[in-house]
C-alpha cells in the first residue's frame, strides 16, 4: 500500500468506526479532476477529505475544488499523518 493509501485507509477506518456515511469518488477518466479522495456526510453536513502523505501538496485543481466546496457551505480538509486526530475531534464536535 502506498503512503497516501495508508492515510486514506486510516480516514476511512475512522469514519467507519464513528458510523459516518462516506464514499470515494470513482476517478476512471469519467469524473472531474481534483475531486477530494473521500466524501462524507455527518449530522447533515457535507465533508470532503483530500488525503496526502508526508509533505504532499495539493494540486491547483484540488485547491480549486476544495475552495468551491467551502464556498458552497461544505467542509473540506487536507489530511495527512500529522493531523489525523482532527477527524475524530471534528466529528465529535459536529454531533
Distinct helical segment count: 3
Q: Taking all residues together, what is the mean pLDDT?
A: 92
Structural class: alpha+beta
**Strand order, sheet with most strands:** 1-2-3-4
Question: Could you characterize the architecture of this molecule?
Answer:
By secondary structure, this protein is an alpha+beta fold. Helices cover 39% and strands 21% of the residues. The protein has helices spanning 3-17, 60-71, 85-94; strands at 21-23, 38-42, 45-51, 75-79. Strand 3 (45-51), helix 2 and strand 4 form a beta-alpha-beta unit.
Labels describing this entry:
3 helices; 4 strands; 95 residues; alpha+beta
Protein topology:
Blueprint lengths: L2 H15 L3 E3 L14 E5 L2 E7 L8 H12 L3 E5 L5 H10 L1
Parallel strand pairs: 3-4
Antiparallel strand pairs: 1-2, 2-3
In short:
With 95 residues, the protein is α+β, with helices and mostly antiparallel strands.
Amino acid at each position: 500500500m502506498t503512503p497516501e493509501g495508508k492515510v486514506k485507509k486510516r480516514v476511512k477506518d475512522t469514519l467507519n468506526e464513528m458510523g459516518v456515511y462516506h464514499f470515494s469518488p470513482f476517478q476512471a477518466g469519467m469524473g472531474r479532476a481534483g475531486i477530494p479522495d473521500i466524501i462524507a456526510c455527518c449530522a447533515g453536513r457535507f465533508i470532503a477529505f483530500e488525503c496526502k502523505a508526508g509533505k504532499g501538496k495539493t494540486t491547483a485543481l484540488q485547491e480549486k475544488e476544495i475552495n468551491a466546496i467551502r464556498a458552497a457551505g461544505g467542509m473540506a480538509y487536507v489530511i495527512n499523518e500529522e493531523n489525523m486526530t482532527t477527524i475524530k475531534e471534528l466529528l465529535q464536535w459536529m454531533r
